[in-house]
Amino acid sequence: MKVMENRVHNKTRAFSEERILNECREYFSSETEKTAEIGERFMQYFLKNASSEGVLFKTIKEITADINISHQTLTKVLKALESKEIIYRRNGIIGLWKD
Hints:
This protein is mostly helical and 99 residues long. The protein is built from five helices and three strands, in the order αααβααββ. The protein has a three-stranded antiparallel β-sheet. A hairpin with a 2-residue loop joins strand 2 (87-90) and strand 3 (93-96). Helix 2 (17-28) packs antiparallel against helix 3 and helix 3 crosses helix 5. The protein is globular, with a radius of gyration of 14 Å. The model is unreliable at 1-12 (pLDDT under 50).
């Protein structure tokens, strides 16, 4: 019963938000403070707006407008997250790599 309540509460997400945020914080700890802060902002935005399967259907332009950062900075953050295989990008979507 408790498990089902947690699933309903978490919208049956196929990923652990806390684990993903911790991985990103760990990775960005070696970057500049500004990059780390923007990386965190992006991941919080991603987790809030992604589908329950861990896919975000937004363009770079929409994301930069929504969280008020430059295109160049967001691209840098996305490339860094891709290189660590936290996210992937395909034809207008950004998705989380599965465990």
